[in-house]
Amino acid sequence: MTGYQDFIPRRRFLGPRFHGALAVSPDGSHVAYVDDASGQFNISVQALKGGPARRLTSLVDSAVRRVVWHPSGRSLIFQADIGGTEKIQLFQVGIDGGDTQALTDTPEASFALAIGAPVSPDERRLAFSGNDRNRAVQDVLVKDLASGVVERVFDAGGRMYAGHWSPDGTRLTAVDWRENNSDHVVYLVGADGGAPLRLTPDTGEPAIYGLGPWLPDGSGFLVVSNAGREFAGLAVLDAETGELSWLDVPDWDVERAALSTDGKTLIWTVNIDGGSQFRGRDLSSGAALPLPELPMGVVREHAVSPDGRHLIFGFASATSPWNVVVLDLATGDLRSLTDNGPSVADPAGLVEPERVRYLADDGLEIPAALYRPRGVTDRVGVVLAIHGGPAAQELPEYSYDGFYQALLGRGLAVLAPDVRGSSGYGKSYLRLSFRDWGGGDLGDCAAAVRWLREQPWVDPDRIGVYGGSYGGFLTLSCVSRLADLNWAAAVDVCGPSNLVTFTRSQPPTWRHKVAVMVGDPDTDEDFLRSRSPVTYADEIRAPLFVVQGANDPRVPQPESDQIVERLRARGVPVRYDVYPDEGHGFSKRENLARMRTDVVNFLAEHLGPADRS
Questions:
Q1: Would you say the pTM of this structure is higher than 0.90?
Q2: Cα dihedral value 547, 552, 555, 560, nearest 10
Q3: What pLDDT, in 10s, does the model give residues 152-193?
Q4: Residue 150 near residue 134 (C-beta atoms within 8 A)
Q5: I need a surface site. Which of 18, 102, 541, 552 has the fewest CB within 10 A?
Q6: How far apart are CA 56 and CA 558, in angstroms?
Q7: String of b and e for 6-20 (b: at least 16 CB within 10 Å)?
Q8: Are the C-beta atoms of 429 and 422 separated by less than 8 Å?
Q9: What 3 state SS string does 128-169 have?
């Protein structure tokens, strides 16, 4: 059997993957990041000037999800879960590595470090959130690092996250995440308790407020918000009045912002049709910073060094895997700190996507990324690849660790649509899928197939569908409710098959948002059942491959079990692979390599040309 790594240069696939978590040391000399060069996501530290990386953790069954520096620079604090369960605990490890110290120890609960630097300016207290008191809500917690005493500074319910410490260390920003991270309420919380102050107005209009760092004078803090707007802009939120002072209001979404320690250098990213571009400002003078234009690709996490001299960020393109990149803001020099495969300028024959649009039945324009194999003159098979979320976007990155490029290497094309409900195209577009899973979004998939069959280079009999999570739900919906489209093959990775059991099985802190986004199983059971792929399982006739993590807390294994059992009871062949040590997203590189290899071979077998050997 041909392996996944045979379609892409070996080092490009086999590692390392980056988890999108990076942090610059307080003195600006080193950067910490999370990669899986060890086979599992662990922490590496590397000098900003370059040189070999040093691994600080050697976790095997646990995966590091985020890392931050202690202000002293002598240790790092991180969060990790075991086996993909997403029951996250907090830990601390010295800069020289060695044994880790547990900062939380409630295995059945889940904790999250503050969104910003979690340690207070005086280095005494750690801010985080957790559902240890009540599994259905998250509280904001502050731990005295010397005594170990934990104070619950916000316990009024909701899915609360600690934000950033004020410069004097007396207050914390906090945010209540409602819906699917599309409706936020911002509070100020006293670090020693007291009544929280709500800063954002109750207008009845959902809006996001992505919390950023405070201004040095403590008058306010940065937020990325779409309050009163279709797209998210960058603003300062006044800490007394809650008023927004806009810094940038582009016609696309601002993604995130970073500020130097001295509060002078502000740099943010804007998502332009999926691709990231930097913008910056010197806050002391108000002047725009001259920043280089990036190739078409994606920035994941970025930080400004404390002295404002360097910008450090994760970057990937469709033809280049993730790397940690350093930009010298004074000279404009750009260099890759890590060496994960060829650079963007050396794509090694890989394929860049084309941005296309097609019309749904109701006239809505659906954006999509189209990848066509090079050097193929005959009609080709196509994989309709549907992203998860649904509040996510098809980005020009090294998608699914080179999965698209592997399919292209087998002579298959990929069409990856941003069906209604996707992010990146305004909050109205994003909210179109709320309580309509398997409605307009499924129509967008049908319209994609019709568009493909109009293209002269597509073999109309060799169209398959692939998706994970929400994309897996739409994959199952396509082959069951749109069976008359005669799908040539389908792959579902961890997709819900029964919206009734899916909504009832959600982790307690997610149940409210799922009820808002998908439906309430207690009041909407008939509707949810009518939109469930398992209801129409008898219609499925396409070859199907189902992949599932046994520890998945978001889409539990019974969701896959149900659809597989229905098909096997009818004698319909279905391949079903369950990974006992994985959750919703695969964290072990060995498992991921095996899964991706099997999926590529399955799709190539069913969608490849008729004369394939």
A1: yes
A2: 40
A3: 999 988 889 999 999 999 999 999 988 767 789 999 999 887
A4: no
A5: 102
A6: 37
A7: ebbeeebbbbbbbbb
A8: yes
A9: EEECCCCCCCEEEEEEECCCCCEEEEECCCCEEEEEEECCCC
